[in-house]
Specification:
The chain is mainly alpha-helical. It has 14 helices and no strands. The longest helix has 15 residues.
């Protein structure tokens, strides 16, 4: 967490020139260095690096641009949802979620269909952060994802969206093969506070995993306290 430095204009100019260095490691370091500077010129200078031949440089450019909190940067990062590198796509999705920018929601919904489970997981997390209700149906479709981590993050996101449409899907997730998914679904059902979930949570009190039983007991308290 180094604080941003307002660099000497000539230094910034020299660094911007070095973005064309033939060596990708040099370009990556230049991007990182520029990303720490408070200078309006870095946004237009970094945008072309989102198309760099090196995935590491593209990933670093995404990160540096996101730090500028510039509207042009957010729009440009959204285009990387189709990047060939899963690491770049994951970083782009992560930063779109952090941007708290509702315009990113359609892009994040698209990312739920990514071939990489890490990207899908990050997209589910980001949609939970943005709390946009248009994400409820797409997220419900992710409860059967092949990756347990994606299912866990999806359940958590549905809890954050607090939309009653999620209850039936979360009740189904309460019997997931993976304990973390069952635990997060109990937590989410507690947040949704729908008495319809009580039967499933009561069953979860007999789960083989203590964390699930504990979360179920807590969720029952949240729902019963409403009545």
């Amino acid at each position: 967490g180094q604080s941003a430095v307002a660099a000497d204009p000539k230094t910034v100019e020299a660094l911007i020139g070095a973005l064309n260095d033939a060596d990708p490691d040099v370009r990556e370091t230049v991007v990182m260095t520029l990303g720490r500077m408070r200078d309006p010129r870095i946004v237009p200078a970094l945008l072309p690096l989102l198309k760099d031949g090196s995935a590491d440089v593209r990933e670093q450019a995404v990160f540096a641009l996101a730090r500028t909190r510039d509207a042009r940067a957010t729009a440009a990062i959204a285009t990387l949802i189709d990047d060939p590198s899963p690491d770049v796509r994951e970083q782009a999705v992560h930063l779109l979620g952090q941007s708290r920018n509702r315009d990113a929601v359609p892009v994040l919904i698209k990312a739920l269909k990514d071939s990489s489970p890490d990207v899908r997981e990050q997209a589910a997390f980001a949609l939970g952060q943005l709390r946009d209700q248009s994400a409820v149906d797409p997220l419900l479709g992710m409860l059967k994802d092949s990756s347990p981590d994606v299912r866990e993050q999806t359940v958590f996101a549905l809890g954050q969206l607090r939309n009653g449409k999620g209850v039936d899907g979360l009740i189904a997730a309460a019997t997931d093969a993976k304990a973390e998914v069952r635990e997060k679904s109990a937590f989410a059902l507690g947040q949704l506070r729908d008495p319809k979930a009580l039967a499933s949570l009561t069953t979860a009190l007999r789960d083989s995993v203590a964390d699930v039983r504990e979360q179920a007991a807590f969720a029952i308290g949240q729902i019963s306290g409403q009545q």
